[in-house]
Structure formats: C-alpha cells, structure tokens
Design brief:
Blueprint (H helix, E strand, L loop, with lengths): L1 H22 L5 E12 L6 E3 L3 E4 L4 H6 L3 E14 L8 E9 L7 E10 H7 L3 E2 L1 E2 L1 H13 L2 E11 L16 E14 L9
Antiparallel strand pairs: 1-10, 2-9, 3-9, 4-7, 4-10, 5-6, 5-9, 6-8
C-alpha cells in the first residue's frame, strides 16, 4: 500500500521539477511587422512610390516584455497582399519593397515582386511571398540589432499583359487598391527566469 502512494508522489515530484526547468526557458518570440498603403490612380502615370514608414520595434509590447533576454533577430519571410481593389482587370504591376536605416539615405531593395495581375492576386485573398535579397535582409537584421529601427517604402510600376507601361483610360482614374507588406520577424532570446512585464 505504501509503495502505491510513494511511486505516484515520486513521479509527481519529477514532473513538477521538469516543469520548473521548462518554465525557466525564454521562448523565441514571433512578430509580424505589417504596413498598409492606399494606392489611388489619379493620373495616367505608370510608376509610383508610397510614403516612407518609420518602424521602431522598441515600441512593440513583445520587445519590451523580452528585451532583457534579446540576443538577436531572424527574418523568416516577407510577403504582400492586395486588398480592396477597384482597378482595371487587365492591370499588372511589379514592385520592390525598399528599406533604409535611421541615419542613412542609401535605399536598399529588400524584396522584389515579379509581374502580377492585380485583380487575380486580390481575388486569391491570400499572402504572396516576396523574393528577398539575403544580403539586404542581413543589413536589416544589423540595423535592428543596433537601433531596433528602420524605414520602409514600396516602389511600383503599372504594366499591361505584354510588359509595357499601362495606359489608363479616363474612367480608370480614381480607382485603386490597398497594398499590404508583411515582414515576419523572430526575436531570438536567451535563458533565464522570466515573467512578462506587459
């Protein structure tokens, strides 16, 4: 009878100890940095660029909670979405997601979007992967580790199905779409007793 009591108690102690050790591990934290841009066609111009958005990961709750254990960053992937389109069905475009550092005017091409039909992508209603320049991604990681900041913008060109500059008709003016970029980051952490601060 005593054995049947002691054995479960012993197993319980082992499980409790293991949970305590697992509780000491600080997990890596995933964070998606998403920005949206409203693009409106107001004139017959086949190229454009969005406003610059300044990103400061130091302001994110995830960073503030795990800052004590932060060891670095990892860029997992970059994607985009086309939303809320009212554009001509035969409109294609290409584009680049561009970044630059806090004290830099040197604009770098982080990712490239090959020619796509905007309406087709919008109808898919899913994220599409961006072809990433690995060297520029490494530079982005360096900026994040140094200051936790970077700036991002989107440059694009409208094309027809043959790859020529698109000619907008009068009735096309005022149409547009929403472009959403997603940068999937992982905050790499170390070990230690941890309780979130937010």
């Amino acid at each position: 009878m005593k054995k049947s009591i002691v054995l479960p108690l012993f197993i319980g102690i082992l499980i409790f100890s293991a949970c305590e050790e697992l509780g000491d591990l600080v997990p890596d934290v995933d964070k998606t940095v998403s920005e949206t841009y409203e693009i409106t066609i107001n004139e017959n111009v086949p190229i454009g660029i969005t406003e610059v958005t300044f990103i400061d990961v130091n302001e994110y709750e995830e960073f503030q909670a795990y800052a004590e254990y932060l060891e670095g960053y990892l860029i997992n992937k970059i994607s985009y979405e086309i939303l809320d389109d009212t554009i001509p069905e035969d409109l294609f475009f290409t584009g680049t997601i561009e970044i630059f550092g806090e004290d830099s005017t040197n604009v770098l091409e982080l990712g490239e979007i090959a020619s796509i039909n905007l309406t087709d992508v919008a109808d898919m209603a899913t994220e599409q992967d961006v072809t990433v320049d690995t060297e520029v991604a490494e530079q982005l990681v360096s900026w994040l580790e140094e200051t936790g900041t970077f700036s991002i913008q989107f440059r694009f060109a409208f094309k027809d199905s043959e790859g020529n500059d698109y000619e907008f008709a009068e009735e096309d003016l005022g149409s547009g779409f929403t472009f959403k970029s997603n940068v999937y980051l992982t905050l790499l952490t170390g070990l230690g007793d941890f309780e979130p601060t937010v």
